Amino acid sequence: MKDEHPAAEDRERAVTDEVLASFDGTGDPRLREVMLSLVRHLHSFAREVRLSEREWETAIEFLTRAGHITDDRRQEFILLSDVLGLSMLTVAINERQEPGATEATVFGPFYVDDAPEVPLGGDIARGAVGTPCYVSGQVRSVDGTPIGGALLHVWGADDDGFYDVQYSADHSAGRGWLRAAPDGSYRFWTVLPTPYPIPHDGPVGDLLTAAGRGPMRPAHLHFKVVAPGHRTLITHIFVAGDPHLGDDAVFGVKDSLVVEAEHHPAGQAPDGSDQQETWTSMTYDLVLVTEGAR
Ligand code: BEZ
Ligand code: FE
Hints:
There is one protein chain. By secondary structure, this protein is an alpha+beta fold. The chain has helices at about 5-20, 30-50, 55-70, 75-85, 85-95, 165, 205-210, and strands at about 130-140, 150-155, 175-180, 185-190, 195, 215, 220-225, 235-240, 260, 260-265, 265-270, 275, 280-285, 285-290. The protein folds into two domains: about 10-50; about 75-290, Aromatic compound dioxygenase (Protocatechuate 3,4-Dioxygenase, subunit A). The strands form four sheets. Strands 1, 4, 10, 13 and 14 form a five-stranded mixed β-sheet that branches. Strands 3-2-7-8-9 form a five-stranded mixed β-sheet, with no helix packed on it. A two-stranded antiparallel ribbon has the order 5-6. A hairpin with a 5-residue loop joins strand 11 and strand 12 (about 275). The N and C termini lie far apart (about 50 Å). The mean pLDDT is about 95. The structure holds benzoic acid and fe (iii) ion. Fe (iii) ion binds near residues 108, 110, 157, 220 and 222.
């Protein structure tokens, strides 16, 4: 079979070789390395699936739709990377494995830079609807040293499964930043996370449907923890027992990040506050890798 089409194979190989050679003059050696590998793998992929012209057009239409739906508040290309597992693979490639360190997971598209400061023990929900949840723990280094003053950015969806920015650009709720106490301890109120679908009314949603995959993410709360001398940690805590822990649309779940949410009747909370309704609590220590450590 192979010998029957040597000319076709040669033609295909010649295209790849010509494109590879076109990057010979790339000044930045890393860009050259990345582009040569990208072209090699992209061409191999097209050869392997024997890409038809109609399929090529479908792919271009898909990417065009992704571009059109992307704006300041919607990033379809990150969603695509997420559902293809590229985001989690990149996390895995770059994460420094240190015994005892908190594992990282996807950043997601809903972090905003200018979230408000919330005092230690304050409420980041700020009007987000849901069951009150008291979250506490300690920020420390892998060697056990508490990281007083560590900066914690926290964000989560409300009980309806929406982030504030999905309502409107200037709506702010369910997010905030605070500093850990001198002993590294932290605490704040928010709402108990619930499972929610990633935005699935665009081309990425259509891809999930065509693949028979769901858009759901298990309930989680996002953290970005920043401390001098430490690698910034981007992670979530997931709520134990969530039905979607096994089929997260973006492959973000790690067992070490799954936390039990305790349910409590109305009454006094650990911060002395008097809770009028049922409330919940989660405890999780955030352990950072020292910068420069191997
Ligand atoms: C999130 O957890 O906020 C998220 C992550 C990936 C895609 C969509 C949402
Ligand atoms: Fe999220």
